[in-house]
Write a structure and sequence with these properties.
Elements: E1 2-5, H1 19-28, E2 37-42, E3 46-54, E4 63-65, E5 69-77, E6 79-86, E7 95-98, E8 103-106, E9 112-117, E10 120-124, E11 128-131, E12 138-147
Antiparallel strand pairs: 1-10, 2-3, 3-12, 4-8, 5-10, 5-12, 6-9, 6-11, 7-8
């Protein structure tokens, strides 16, 4: 898992062949006005999902993992409160992996919580169990889905 500011994105472009294009999208797109929903960048290999709305209470948080995609979650406005736990430390999923949604959910609570303010991003790899949008405030964000290679 990575937590940093978009200004430092160049430090991470070497981690995946599509990260440079992903960060370029974040830097060159007017994210405050782009329409909500899914936006293809490189077909199914790299796409963006724009959302805007309130989160959920911490007691309702569910840790999730993905197999096919790495998440880069960038906060456009507001502050997203997120949780993380190493998937290897999680119990068996209470909602097993389903390929069509590329997600499994765990009953565990995060090992730690952190705030991600506007202008910052996280990178979650397939072994990073994470819970996002754990806030009652309105958050506009983009989740970039990058195919694992």
């Amino acid at each position: 898992m990575v937590l940093d500011k978009l200004a430092n994105a160049s430090r991470y472009t070497c981690l995946h062949p599509l990260f440079e294009q992903a960060f370029r999208f974040l830097q060159e797109t007017d994210l405050k006005t782009v329409a909500l929903g899914q936006h293809p960048i490189v077909g199914k290999e790299l796409f963006a999902i724009i959302s805007d709305g309130p989160g959920i209470p911490e007691k309702s948080a569910k840790l999730e993992v993905h197999r096919k995609y790495i998440d880069i979650q960038y906060i456009i406005s507001g502050t997203d409160h997120m949780g993380w736990k190493d998937m290897a430390q999680c119990e068996a999923p209470n909602d097993p992996y389903q390929e069509e949604r590329d997600a499994a959910f765990f009953p565990d609570k995060p090992a730690f919580w952190f705030d991600v303010p506007a202008g910052s991003f996280t990178i979650f790899y397939p072994d990073d169990a994470h819970a996002a949008m754990i806030t009652e405030e309105n958050v506009r964000k983009v989740v970039l889905k990058i195919a694992v290679q």
